[in-house]
Amino acid sequence: MSLNSSGFSKGKAAAAAAAVAAAASGVLFAFLCGSLFSGLFVTLLAVYTVLIFRKSDDDYGVMSPRRVFLLLYLGYGIVPFFSVLFRHSDFYQERYAPLLSIFHRYLDNPLPALLMILAGLIAFEAGYSVSLRPRKVPADIAGTGALLWTSIVFYGVTALFFGKLVLFIMQRLSVFSFLNYSELYEMLGAPSYLVGIGLGWFSVAIVILYVASHIGNKKILRIVALASLAAFVVFCVLMGKRRIVVTTLLALVLFRHYYIKRIPRWVVTAMFLLGTWFVNLVANLRILNIVSRRYLELVMDVVRSLNPLEALINLSVISEFQMPFGTFLTLTNRVPSREPFMAGESYLKAPLVMIPRSLMENRWDGLGPWFVDHFFPQYKGTGFAFFILGEPYLNFGIVGVILFMVFFGMTMKLLAGLLKENRERPFAVLLISYAVAFMFSFIRMDIVCLRELMYTFILPVILVLVIANMLVRLNEHIILR
Question: Are the beta carbons of 178 and 237 closer than 8 angstroms?
Answer without folding.
Answer: no
